Amino acid sequence: MSGNQSNTSEDHCDFDDSLIFTLVPPYILVISVVLGIIFNVFVLMVFCLHKKACTVAEIYLSNLAGADLALVCCLPFWAENVRKGYDWPFSESLCKVTSAVIYMNAFCSIYFLVMVSIDRYVALVHPLSHERIRRPFYAKLGCLFVWVFGLVFALPIFIYRKLKFNPQSNLTHCSLNFTSDQYLAYEVITITFSFIIPVIIILFCTVKIIQALRKRLMEALNIQKTDQKATTLILAVLLAFLICWVPFHVTKILDVLQSTGILKCHITLIIAQQISTYFAFFNSVLNPILYVLVGKTFQKRARELFMLWNKNQTASFSRLSTRLTSFKFDQSSN
């Protein structure tokens, strides 16, 4: 996503893009408009409109839903770009903004998962000594730091994304205006900070969390139900992240090796890049589904919010009926 999405057709290997132009646009529209936007708006409504304040884990998960929502809102523009054969039909400003937003929110999503995995690690492995830092204020401060960090990392995308007309293909590409050295340095930094470092932290925390849970079960220690429910949901979200994003970053690493000449271009790599990119996008749809299926506390919040909404609707309908009845009575009296 941070590289030349629009330049697939200009790879050194010959590749028939017709299947991509046919299948990818409807796929992107389904996961973005039909699923991604609706599901993530629902998650944000449950977290933000509920009377009870969010826990630390829920603050991170609500910000994750916000990042996923912003990401999928930009995907329809890329669907249209792919449908037109990578001929960008919009302005250069939109090219810059949508690319930067996609990159920024993909980056933020990863680090919100890092934050939530650290929170579970502290809650289960060091429950007493680190209780002070597990407060909503610090969680909100951490989320603000992640958003700022993501914005900084998205700046090169905003600055260097430009529209370039290719006279050979008669197409206008929305692509990164990097030299080969700049591209290599940028990809190495991106892979390091958006994949290697966060995955190491997530795997370390996950292993420690699982070990702590097993130890408590073996020692017959009681685990608070709220901690157990939150941990189950977060482990499911972390697993979904690894399944969806690891293939994408692995293909990015192979692409960097190819650009340096260490690996030769192969049709399999191009196909893998396409599949892994759009599979990574699906993670933004999968997260809300996991909240509903696995998150017991989220299910409870959603039911309570629905009941409150239903109660308000019933009360509003009752008041309206009373007013209509009174109006009809006054009319008949006159």
From TrEMBL:
Alphabetic keyword roster: Cell membrane, Disulfide bond, G-protein coupled receptor, Glycoprotein, Membrane, Receptor, Transducer, Transmembrane, Transmembrane helix
Location (main, coarse): membrane
TM helices/strands, residue ranges: 27-47, 59-79, 99-116, 137-160, 188-210, 230-250, 270-294
Annotated ranges, domain G-protein coupled receptors family 1 profile: 39-291
GO cellular component: external side of plasma membrane
SUPFAM superfamilies for this protein: Family A G protein-coupled receptor-like
Topology relative to the membrane: Multi-pass membrane protein
Location(s), subcellular: Cell membrane
GO aspect biological process, one term: calcium-mediated signaling
UniProt GO MF annotations: bradykinin receptor activity; C-C chemokine binding; C-C chemokine receptor activity
Pfam short name (any one): 7tm_1
The family this protein is said to belong to: Belongs to the G-protein coupled receptor 1 family.
UniProt name for this protein: Bradykinin receptor B2
Lineage of origin: Eukaryota, Metazoa, Chordata, Craniata, Vertebrata
